[in-house]
Specification:
Number of strands of chain B: 0
Shape of chain B: globular
Structural class of chain B: mainly alpha
Number of strands of chain A: 0
Low-confidence stretches of chain B: 1-9, 475-487
Mean pLDDT of chain A: 73
Oligomer: heterodimer
Helix content of chain A: 40-55%
Number of helices of chain A: 2
Structural class of chain A: mainly alpha
Largest sheet of chain A: none
Order of helices and strands of chain A: HH
Distance between the termini of chain B: 30 Å
Low-confidence stretches of chain A: none
Distance between the termini of chain A: 84 Å
Number of helices of chain B: 15
Helix content of chain B: over 70%
Chain lengths: ~80, ~475
């Protein structure tokens, strides 16, 4: 069995040796795939954080976070300006 | 009875005053940077609309402004695209996103000068990009036509936005992180991530030929889904409950919508390359992910509809709600249409036709742009303490833009569908196919004219507010009476 270092360098060689035979194409697709996984990873990380700090407990109460003490639920906060103007 | 002497009334009044003071402080701190983003965004909206009209007229009247190289279709059309994406929509999203974050975190913006510098740099980047594209130095990569140097400036301009967003989240008052905050914070990180990756893989260390469209469409589609869509939905989740004074119908569903968007959307972009020289698995994954989008879209649609149920009357008296509800409904339609268009058999018919252009405008205009209009109508009076000048102007703006984009979408969708059928029929000469699309292209120009007129009215209203030619805000667009007394 080849040492890990040799395997890695062989893999790098496969991807970078000859741009014209399509290996670089594979490398680029792999890079995009990695970025995709990164975005997915960031979502998982946020999800883990949200769960660990209790953001999913009493979840329906969270809907009230949009309201303030002076703009409470039940109070409308927008209207057209005076139509006479 | 002296209610003022009751302890709970005193306590309530104290917390009310604190709340009002904090809200005033939040809006005051946001005034300069957010206004800078909004004003310059509207400038790019007007310029982008003019470029759009020129490009549209050229499609059915090719001799129109044909003598100047910088006004040829190949330059004007990408100039329109990039000015409205980066100059208008992105700047508006930055402003709206920062203001909502500040409000929801109950943390005033701290780095006003840094953000003013960011707004300046953002506009320099757009100006460089526009000159580059009209001057003939376009990259020819769709959605990324600006020369790479302009891209560098835009990236630098975004850094302070991220810093301020993180700063506000770190200073947020204890409590629940509202769903809009999740959307905005994610968008503020996903967009620069996408943009930088696309710049590196397309311009700094360019991918070989066939990989470039993969990078291109991965970027372009995700910019819609992971930048504009999250800020748009964050706005809907904020403004609908806020305006009607009713919590979102199911907060649980709103969280399902956010997390499913975060998990599924990034895989969507490759459905633009159906039929292209790409591994079949890559396209198939994207088609499946596109259909998975039914989950967040339907949850959002159901949730917004049930929140509005019993409150549709509010559309008569709230300018913000008119635009926001129109945009939210458009989001549902454009997303379901997009998922269905990713199916190979339908894609074969509609790809490379005006149907795709109509679909893109339904997303970027009927959803994103209308949402930003609604948000700005809500935010600007609170930043400036001044009322909008005219209810009639707001209504004219809404109807011109709303009817304009519906006309645009319906006309080009029908025209594009017929164009696709004709293109697949080898007995029809290509020029005959082109001639058949002409009535729909003329309709497109009329629709574009309507939308541009709406934009001019909107810019006029904003100019009147900013030059203090409108009355100070009363209870109408509401600073609440207590706040009005304290300002």
């Amino acid at each position: 069995m080849a040492p890990a270092g040799e395997s890695v360098s062989a893999l790098v060689k496969v991807f970078t040796s000859d741009p014209l035979n399509g290996n670089l194409f594979a490398l680029m697709l792999a890079l995009i795939f990695l970025v995709l996984l990164g975005i997915l990873g960031s979502a998982l990380l946020m999800f883990w954080w949200a769960a660990s700090v209790g953001q999913f407990e009493n979840i329906e109460d969270g809907a009230l976070a949009v309201f303030d003490t002076d703009e409470p639920a039940g109070q409308t906060t927008d209207s057209f300006p005076d139509p006479r103007r | 009875m002296k209610t003022a002497s009751l302890p709970y009334v005193e306590h309530h009044r104290e917390s009310l005053d604190q709340g009002v003071h904090l809200r005033i402080e939040v809006d005051r701190a946001a005034r300069a940077p957010i206004t800078a983003f909004f004003v310059t965004a509207v400038f790019w909206l007007l310029l982008g609309s003019m470029l759009a009209l020129v490009a549209s007229i050229k499609l059915h009247t090719p001799g129109f402004l044909a003598d100047a190289a910088w006004l040829t279709f190949g330059r004007v059309r990408p100039a329109h695209l990039d000015t409205v994406i980066y100059g208008w929509c992105s700047a508006a999203c930055i402003g709206v996103g920062l203001w909502m974050t500040s409000r929801l975190c109950r943390a005033p913006i701290r780095h006003q000068r840094l953000l003013l510098g960011s707004a300046l740099l953002w506009n320099i980047g757009n100006a460089m990009g526009l000159v580059g594209v009209l001057g003939g130095w376009s990259t020819s990569v769709e959605w990324l036509e600006y020369p790479p140097v302009a891209g560098l400036v835009l990236m630098a301009a975004f850094v302070p936005v991220m810093i301020e967003a993180v700063s506000m989240v770190r200073r947020r008052q204890p409590g629940h992180v509202y769903v809009s905050q999740w959307y905005i914070l994610a968008a503020f990180f996903w967009f620069p991530w996408l943009y930088a990756t696309a710049q590196v893989l397309l311009f700094w260390h360019p991918a070989p030929g066939p990989a470039q469209p993969a990078v291109n469409w991965w970027y372009a589609h995700n910019t819609l889904g992971l930048w504009f869509t999250p800020v748009g939905l964050a706005s809907a989740y904020y403004f609908i409950p806020k305006v009607i004074g009713k919590p979102i119908h199911s907060y649980y569903l709103s969280m399902v919508g956010f997390w499913s968007l975060a998990f599924f959307y990034a895989w969507n972009g490759m459905h633009h390359l159906i039929g292209g020289p790409f591994p079949a698995w890559l396209i198939s994954v994207s088609v499946v992910a596109s259909l998975m989008m039914f989950v967040p879209v339907i949850t959002v649609a159901v949730n917004h509809h049930l929140t509005m149920r019993g409150n549709f009357d509010a559309l008569r008296w709230s300018p913000t709600l008119r635009f926001v509800v129109f945009a939210a409904m458009s989001y549902t339609v454009v997303s379901l249409q997009g998922s269905l268009t990713a199916i190979r058999s339908l894609n074969r018919l509609t790809h490379f036709t005006h149907y795709t252009v109509a679909h893109a405008h339904l997303g970027m205009y009927a959803f994103v742009t209308m949402m930003m209009f609604g948000a700005i109508y809500y935010i600007v009076p609170r930043l400036t303490g001044r009322e909008w000048p005219s209810a009639a102007a707001i209504k004219a703006h809404f109807w011109l833009c709303g009817l304009g984009v519906i006309l645009y979408w319906v006309g080009l969708s029908i025209g594009g569908f017929k164009q696709g059928l004709a293109l697949l029929d080898e007995s029809i000469p290509f020029m005959e196919v082109v001639k058949r699309t002409l009535p729909y292209l003329e309709l497109r120009s009329w629709a574009g004219t309507m939308m541009t007129l709406g934009h001019i009215i909107f810019a006029w209203s904003l100019w009147r507010v900013l030059t203090r030619r409108t009355p100070a805000t009363g209870k109408a667009t509401l600073l609440a009476p207590q706040a009005a007394a304290l300002t």
